[in-house]
Amino acid sequence: MLATIGKRLVTVIPTLIGVVIVTFLLTRVLPGDPAVYFAGPAATPESIAEVRKSLGLDRPLPEQFLRYVSDLAHGNFGNSLSTGRPVITEIASRLPASAELTLLGLVLSIIIAVPLGILAAVKQGSWIDHTCRIVATAGVSLPVFFTGLLLVYVFYFQLGWSPAPVGRLDAFASTPPHITGFYLIDSLVTGNFESFRAAFAQLILPALTLCIFSLAPITRMTRASMLAVLASEFVRTARASGLDDRTVIITYAFRNAMLPVVTTLGMVFSFLLGANVLVEKVFAWPGIGSYAVEALLQSDFAPVQGFVLTMAVLYVALNLLIDILYGVIDPRVRLEG
Amino acid sequence: MTETSMPMATAAPVQPKTPSNSIFKHARYVVAENPVTGLAFGLFLLIVLCAVFGPYIVPYDPLATDTTATLQPPSLTHWFGTDQLGRDIFSRVVVATRLDLVIAVSSVALVFVMGGFAGIAAGFFGGWTDRVVSRLADTIMAFPLFVLAMGIVAALGNTVTNIVIATAIINFPLYVRVARAEANVRREAGFVQAARLSGNGDFRILLLHILPNIMPIMMVQISLTMGYAILNAAGLSFIGLGVKPPTPEWGIMVAEGAANIISGEWWIALFPGAALMIAVFCFNLLGDGLRDLVDPQRRT
Asked: How many CB atoms lie within 10 A of CB B13?
């Protein structure tokens, strides 16, 4: 198992190199002068020249690349123009907010989508199957920011069940001490149930928005995968041997149907990380997505570059995790590795 | 979309020879089997009509402000209500169709040329071409796609053209993958060898023999990615990239109405959002329908 993980880690390296090259190229080779971007919209020619020198932009391209890589290795993502703070500290302090939101959205979505997909496959052609199909087609067509606004309108304005979409906590709740950075976990660990309730109330609508967004691909894949497995011969044999439906579906079919679903999760995560940016904008969520959007609108390039790189590295890491999970679910993958 | 799919739709009845006739029959069968595809086609026509004639048929000027009628709920005079500047939302939603469609169509056309050609070349030549193209596609896929689009727009500059380019780039791997697989299968096919024997060069074979053969599959890909392109472009303009404020565009209109949702003026964001949803829904259904036509085995 360890050897498999080690081998898989090695294959990540070229991808990471590609990612770093692309984020580097985004600033250096494209039309326009990167010094102008980094100096900001209100820069004078002198300050541009100064920025050019301090960034090493007067040096040849390969040298610039090496310098960029060594900066990254030292955890230096550059400084934001508008706040003057280093990008890496800003991203590190905002990352838990985004991660908490995205992960809760994904978990909710799996909890709903997987059973729905299984039921749709087992009772093919029933009303559950049709619901599943409608969910799958409508879900991919709904713009995620639109779903978020609809939820705000219904649950905040009409029903008054949820608080105003103003971030992670309302003004009255106290911020739990920083342990993991996940407010739900931190407030539970310290026994602060008032904060937990407040944090949960703020979190549930944006998480639900992401959940609705990612329901469609997971449901669709679970259904298709279950249908394929249920039609296979070993399931027929299991049924013929007199095993009850529950054992056949859960132990035999579901375990085998999991693999394509887990693969889909990687793709779903790619979409979720993008959707996260839009949801953070709708709910004024203080995560890295809204940080990047603010910076983007002010032509403050360093935070955007840091954000793109962070997201890509997270995504690569997640795909790695999924591959390892693959080995846990399917012993055949483990043996081949 | 207007240039690319209309010929397909009209070509079938115009040339009732054996192959196209059977395609037409099959199309009728698919529509009869799945009336939703027919509905999607109707919606598609409606969207195209709005895009072409929208500015001439709307009751109000989409940019005209009216301080006496701000934040009006939907009524007979203003079907979709008015926004905080008193602009008629119905007119703005209809007029916006053209811009949204133009952004999506041009980005899909761009990626069709770039990705389609790179993919065919990769599948046909193999070797180094294949390695370079596949590596490029893999690197793009290593990014969360919307995030990469944001980065590209940030680097290239905040304009509508760059939104088109960014949307094209993030769709690149999808087109490469399909075109590469299809071209690879046909690399040693009889008709390719025959073409080579009769003295055609590689480039000519690619363009005149392989490309027409993989067109149906690529058409499916086009209509499947149209919806995604619309969503992506609207998402970018929702966060304030590309389209500038007074211009009517669905994404930015939803963003403008977002603040009013909290105070209960739902119509400002709802109607452009719904238009967006219907357009995406329509293209997704069309894509599924088209796939059933071209590739019946993958029907679900």
From this structure: 11
